[in-house]
Amino acid sequence: MKFLAASRADAVGLVLGAVLDAVFGDPRRWHPVAGFGRFAGALEGRLYADSRWAGARFTAVAVGAPVAAAAIAARLTRDRPVARTALVAAATWSALGGTSLAREGRVMADRLTAGDLPAAREQLPNLCGRDPNALNAPELARATVESLAENTSDAVVAPLFWGAVAGLPGIVGYRAVNTLDAMVGHRSARYARFGTASARLDDVANLAPARLTAALTVAAAPLVGGSPARTLHTWLRDGSHHPSPNSGQCESAAAGALGVRLGGRNVYGSRVEERPHLGDGPLPTPADVRRAATLTVAVGAAAVALAAVARLGLARRRGSRRKP
Fold first, then answer.
1. How far apart are CA 91 and CA 185, in angstroms?
2. Rounded to two decimals, what is the model's pTM?
3. 196/208 Cα distance (integer angstroms)
4. What angle do CA 234, 235, 238 make, to 5 degrees?
5. Of 36, 71, 120, 193, which is most buried with the most CB atoms under 10 A?
């Protein structure tokens, strides 16, 4: 019964955290993710070496420490539902980024609609790490739609998924893993070996959430004028063509729902990547960027409901197994 009550508090906390994100967006000050970033940066300074072993040790400590703290907090509040709900709500709010993501996408759509390319290029770094300087309006729109699709999983569905599976430690652990990947998991001379463990752990943590995001995109396609059948077909056909095991799932589903073509030449500083095309149709327009932002909100709302129901369902299933 205690486990069921705690899981009810978790479910309510997940919903409240999502409501806070919908109303306020990301916390303006004292963001816990920024604090974790400072902790991880200091830890990197102590543990860095140009080896995979050093990177694995760094990842284990950087993820293990906040997860252990969250597990202790969850245990201490197991019999205090109000405190537990507040903790889970705060962690969920800090981990989610759907409202800010959709808002940044709409700002890009507005700037592209106005024909203000310099402002649109200035906006792109708020969404992804691609070099915006040589991009025209269709390519800026493509980069935005791809970022919205990928980050709907990373910043919305995945934290909720892990909150449903593991409660407070799951939310905290996922956000730590995803933040480390952003810090050291990218390709560069410094992190080619040291960042391997963080990048691979992020891939594993996102395997299920990315595919759930694609499935929810199929269901939400009619809300943006898309066809579920076409979305499913595009996802199943193109999802594995992307170099990432997870991003392609979300991006191909979004391409199918919006009826656009994604993929192509991406420039990241001095690095150039040629990616396969995902979906059929023209490059995205500013109107498609707005539709992609709407898709982010719709998929996020469905994920919140699923996470709360799943957390309660897992608790009831575990409780029934304990009965004689």
1. 23
2. 0.93
3. 20
4. 75
5. 120
Sign of CA dihedral 184, 107, 295, 262: negative
Measured at the alpha carbon of residue 180, what is the angle toward residues 175 and 186, in degrees to the nearest 5? 130
CA distance 29 to 40: 19
The domains of the chain are located at: 2-322
Chain Cα centroid distance, residue 114 = 29
Q: Do residues 140 and 108 lie in contact, with contact meaning Cβ atoms separated by under 8 Å?
A: yes
First to last CA, the chain: 14
For 268, the 3-state DSSP assignment is: strand
Helix axes 247-258, 207-220, angle to 10 degrees: 10
Say which residues have a Cβ less than 8 Å from residue 162's Cβ, sequence separation at least 6. Answer: 170, 171, 173, 174, 205, 209
Q: Which residue has 């759930």 as its token pair?
A: 212
**Residue-level pLDDT, tens digit, the chain, 324 residues:** 555 678 889 999 999 999 999 999 887 777 788 889 999 999 999 999 999 999 999 999 999 999 999 999 999 999 899 999 999 999 999 999 999 999 999 999 999 999 999 999 999 999 988 889 889 999 999 999 999 999 999 999 999 999 999 999 999 999 999 999 999 987 788 999 999 999 999 999 999 999 999 999 999 999 999 999 999 999 999 999 988 899 999 999 999 999 999 998 887 766 777 889 999 999 999 999 999 999 999 999 999 999 999 998 876 666 555 554
Closest CA to 266 of 281, 249, 247: 247
Q: Is 96 helix (H, G, I), strand (E, B) or coil?
A: coil
